[in-house]
Structure formats: structure tokens, C-alpha cells
Amino acid sequence: MKILLVEDDANLREVTQRSLEKERYVVEIAADYRTALQKIEDYDYDCILLDIMLPDGSGLDLLEKLKKMHKRENVIILSAKDSIEDKVLGLDLGADDYLPKPFHLVELNARIKSVIRRHQQGGENSIKYGNIEIFPDKYGVTVAGKKIELNRKEYDILVYFMNRPGRLVNKNTLAESVWGDHIDQVDNFDFIYAQIKNLRKRLKEAGATPELKAVYGFGYKMVVE
Fold first, then answer.
1. What's this model's pTM, rounded to 2 decimal places?
2. In Å, how far from its chain's centre is CA 70?
């Protein structure tokens, strides 16, 4: 899962980023409006944590930009401005939740899981496709009811495709979502091919009905034959 943290307070930004990375999220940061806008224009995220009061603009304006771009990111507003007007305006502009500062990191993590579960899992505690079932809260995976062991990136790749069954995914988009936007700096995608190869082998050995199909020259898609 890939998160964008938009926060101008350096200490809060660092503490929050470390906490979320311990929860196995890919976390990218933006300290101001300009950087945040550039990132949401260039990349997709599973969740955006958005401060309202930024040094060079308003987080509410970023919400409006998201709406105009027809992007579907989950948005949680994190703000010291705890007025009813701000909450209502933020939710009207498309925010999914509103968490006033100061907040507990445990609660923030619970809120993130909640909005992702509502939007990507239909409110369910697991993700199912074919005979594969993923339990995100426990980072568990079963095939036909039997647990299988995956490394972290294999798991992240599987979650990404399970949330997009049958959809053709460009290898660049996959890399950015699972490894973060610094992926732009790499020379090739050999590491992705290796992880995909290992994941496909593990799923096949476990008897999974969904299969990761390579589409030459573009990327991959998960389908049930």
C-alpha cells in the first residue's frame, strides 16, 4: 500500500513516516503545497494524509484539484484546525475522514486501514479472488484455505493485483506503487521480474486458480482461466 503524507511539520512528518513504514506501507512525503500537487499529478496512491495548513497553500485546494482530476485516492485530513466548518468542507470536497491534531499513531493506522477496507475491499476484512484470500490486517495469504508464506514485496505485489483483478498493469505503475516514486532512478526492472517470477512460482505450487499473466511489451494482469 502506498501513502502520500502531506505535512509541513518536520518532526511530526518524520515520526509519522517511521510509524507507517513499520506497518509496511510505502510512504512518500511532501512538505508543501507545490510538492504535494506535483506528486498527486504524477503518481497514484492508496491513501493521502493531508494537512490543511501548508506554508504555500491550502490542503483543501489540493482536495479540489484531486476532484477535478477525477482521482480516487482515499484522503484523510490531518489538521490542528478542528472546527466543524473545516470538517464539513473537507468531507464535501471528497475527504474520507478527518483526524484532528494531536493524534495517536495507533488511531491513525486504524483510520487508514478503515478507509482502505471500505474502498478497496468493499468493507470486508479480506480480499478474495479465485481461491486466493488475503487478510491485510494480519498480512496473511491463503490458497484454497491453506496458508502460504510470501516475502514482503511478493505480498505487496499480490495485494496490488488482487485489488485490480483482470486489469492490465504497466510495469512502471506497478514499480511506483510497490517501491515508491524513487523507482524513477533505476536503470532496469530486473528486480521486478525476479519478484514476479518468484510469486508466480509460489502461487502455482500452492494450486492457485488466479494467474499472473505477462503481456509482452506492457506489463501484467491477474486472471482466472
1. 0.77
2. 17
